[in-house]
Structures are given as C-alpha cells and as structure tokens.
Design goal:
alpha+beta; 6-stranded antiparallel beta sheet; 3-stranded mixed beta sheet; disordered C terminus
C-alpha cells in the first residue's frame, strides 16, 4: 500500500482512507490475511490512529474486515446470504428450522419484551437460548421469549433444564395455530454475551432481527436474534438455505 496525501481531500479523512484501504484489500490482500498493526498503517498513510480506527470500523461494518480475538484485523470472506424468513410461516423448532436449541430457563424478561408479550413486569417467561452455525462458524445467537400461557401443558414434561427443556417448550408452542409473524431488522452492537457466543469483540456491529409470533390475536412468542454483521447478508424468501453472495472480487487464500 502506498502513501496517500489526505490533507486536501474535501470529504472526511477517514472516509477517503476507507476508500484507499478498500482498493488495497481488493488488489493486495487475500481473504484471511492479517493487516499490519494500527501504528504501521497510520504511519504509512500519514494519519492519526483515531482516523485510521474510524476507517477500519467502517470497513468492518461493511463486511470487508473482521476483528478476531488474539489474531488482529483480517480480510473477511464474502458475506453469506442467511435466510431469516420464508413465505410459509412456521413456529421456531419446526422440521426446517436451522437453529440449535441450547438451554431454557424461567426468567423475568426486559421491560420492552414484557410490554410486547403483555405480561406483568415481574412475571417470568420461558427464555429459550438457541444458536445458528453455518460453514462451521457461529453466525447468530437467539433469545426466544415465550409466556407460560403459550405452553400451558409444559408442567407434565420431565425435562427440567438444558437443551431438552428448550426442545420441549418449542414442541408445546407448535400446538398453537400460528396466525402470522412480523419481522423487524436493525443495526446494533454486540453485547458481551452475544460477542462471546459469536466469537466477536464487544461492540462489534451486529444485525438484530426481532420476530413477533402471533396466535389467538396476541403475541405468543418473541424472538430476538443477533446476527454477525461482518459475515451475514440477511435474505427473506423461500430458499430456506444459505447462499454465497459475491461482492467485489477478492483473492482466495
């Protein structure tokens, strides 16, 4: 990468640097290759480290770079297309569900979740924790909130905790007739728990998909799924699978 003078550029310095770095990623680096450290990069481009960090954060947000614990900043592979919805709506845990149940516990949900579920502020609900893996790497973590009255026959299930309990809750949930589901997507930052599960750093960009499952005219379950923004492109359609969407050409490692 050559040195570029940025002082006369009318746009923000970090944005111009982001463009220069992006071109270098296409022409000089391979997928998975580790970038030089911040001090060397800042010196090479003649910018402050704060400006460099802004450019690197923007490229991470765009899925061009990944920050990895104990490794550093590496060139990211093309984003994977991850299906999060199909025309045929279904309860979580169905036969074509790509998620893996991990655990289930009775917990008091956050106030905003309780309001959506129309439960009492101190009322516990079933919280099912699930994960989604693609191509051998974690791509999403989910918290699925289910009120007790959505699964009234669960008391007879002999599965006190863990993945077995989670699967039992999901089986009971499927007894309800699903009327519709509503999805919303927003950009967020990884919390400590999500970051640990997704092998990310706290504060890394994530895509948060909130799904409201409606039965009997009320919210029967609420899913809050956190996807890695650096590796995932969310798709809404009937494919139900994971496709590779190629962006600008990059060198294969």
């Amino acid at each position: 990468m050559g040195t570029t003078q940025l002082g006369t550029v009318p746009e923000p310095k970090y944005w111009h640097l982001r463009t220069v770095l992006s071109e270098a990623l296409d022409s000089e680096f391979s997928v998975g290759e580790i970038l030089p450290n911040e001090r060397d990069l800042a010196a090479r481009f003649g910018v402050a480290r704060a400006t460099l960090r802004q450019a690197l954060e923007q490229l991470e947000l765009e899925g061009r770079l990944q920050r990895r614990r104990g490794v550093g900043t590496t060139v990211a592979p093309p984003r994977m297309g991850v299906s999060v919805g199909t025309a045929q709506q279904a309860w979580p845990g169905g036969p074509h569900d790509a998620w893996q149940a991990l655990d289930c516990a009775l917990e008091v949900p956050p106030a905003a979740v309780a309001e959506t579920l129309v439960t009492g502020r101190d009322e516990s609900v079933h919280v099912v924790r699930r994960s989604r893996v693609s191509h051998g790497q974690p791509v999403a973590a989910e918290l699925l909130y289910i009120p007790a009255d959505s699964v009234p026959d669960l008391s007879g299930i002999d599965a006190p905790s863990g993945a077995a309990r989670a699967r039992a809750v999901l089986r009971e949930l499927q007894r309800l007739e699903l009327e519709r589901q509503e999805n919303a997507v927003e950009l967020g930052s990884a919390r400590a728990d999500d970051a640990r599960e997704l092998d990310r750093l706290p504060g890394a960009p994530v895509l948060v998909v909130t799904t409201r499952f409606v039965a009997r005219g009320r919210t029967a379950a609420l899913s809050v799924a956190t996807y890695r923004a650096d590796t995932c492109r969310l798709t809404f359609g009937d494919s139900g699978g994971v496709e590779i969407h190629h962006g600008p050409e990059r060198h294969a490692s």
